[in-house]
Amino acid sequence: MSIRPWVVVEAPDGRGLRRVTVGGEAVGSAWSLRELRGMLDRLGHGDVDVHDPASVYWRGGDSGTWPDRPWRRRVTGSVVLAGLLASAVLNAVIGWPDASGALTFAQRVTGALFVLSGLVQLAAAVSVLDFWGKRQSAPTGAIVLLGVLIALATDSLLVLLWLDERQYTPYLLAFMPLWCWSVWALRLLLREKPWKGVPQPRKFAAGVFASALFTALSLAYSTLYQPTVAPMHFALKAEFGTARADRRLPFVQVPLKISVKNTGAFSAYIVISDFTVYGRTAQYAGRGSFSGEEWKNSIDKYGEEEAERHVDRLAFSHLSSGRIYEPGTLLESGQEDTREHVFQIPADARYDLLRADLQLTYLRKDRGRIDSEEFDKQRATWRMKKGVPCISNDCGDRIVYLGAVRHNNNLVNVTRAAHYVLATWSPMGTPGYSLSCYHLDGKEIDLAEEKKDVARFGVATVKAQTDISLAELLKSVTPPRPS
């Protein structure tokens, strides 16, 4: 008969867990006397008297020494588990739109990294059950530590991006508490030193550092870099066609052909577009003068910057207006469209020339996306009793278009307030647009912030102008055939 006790219960470790050996073989660990009895019963030794020194040898305390605090341990593990699950869901929500539908490779990589980090955090959440339990698997502590480090890195990035603008976003209620949680969880884990269970902790640390560095570089490139090497180009052209005399009325029908081509490398959304035809009248003088008074009057009245010695007192009459595209139309790279428009002028019109002005404002698709279904809805200001959005207090009779616009990088979307693009059109004035996050809550637009948003989304306006002599145009007029 061996003088060595058959069952040995080791001293409690730092968490109050006592290792148990039976016949010299480790069979598990126990948090309490009840759990020890259950373990012996499962092994077929339920008849062992745990209080008998001949059967059970207690080290570091007797049968009443169980320092485990189960309620505190379970609550702590549950909080870590909940934080990892919440961070995993947040990362997946942020990353999936870019991973599945981003335009650029860098943005897709960023989205895929966020989705992958969410999967790692799910694995860490599962490992919490073992690490805050009996720690039967050595790597679980390192996996939990990796999940918490990922949460701290991604939440810190979200907080830094939010601090750049400090705009309210619903996601703020998620990533700000999660950042506080990740700091707390990291401090908690550092006290536990979970890397001790890893066979090669240095290689593990190097792998974590390399992954974090690669992720940080990818995120910085995708988030902070704005492509400037591929500027947008649009070719706008207007041509007056062959004029024809009206068969029944003393008017001349003048065709106008409008051509638009996206010659840039990226597609673009049309924010607002406009064509306007003017008829010019002027006073002619044989000798003429460059005194400047008449030219200054033309500048003050009509904004006309041209000057001719024998032509003075320029005035422009509005003849016809329209839109080239419906707002929200997507113009693909290389796409070319033409539109034929016919307008009328009196046969005895006193204009000396006709002018066509084209204007097109676009938003780059590689910088943002417009909710086209909402944006292309017409809202007539004279039918709206209240809540009419305006631009620079210009709230006259206009057609208004309002739609949400999103960044192509979803990481930016979750750290910025919702933005809206507003466009207005009227045949009586110049089309206008505005892009900001204040159109729906009644706040005054911050012009400096709006300028930054316009640049960030790549919003720009292109213009073109065409003149034709009325004398030249009427040379081609075909008189009506006698009926």
TrEMBL record:
Swiss-Prot/TrEMBL keywords: Membrane, Transmembrane, Transmembrane helix
Membrane-spanning ranges: 79-97, 109-129, 141-163, 169-190, 202-224
Domain of life: Bacteria
Protein name as it appears in the record: Uncharacterized protein
Naturally occurring in which organism (per UniProt): Streptomyces mexicanus
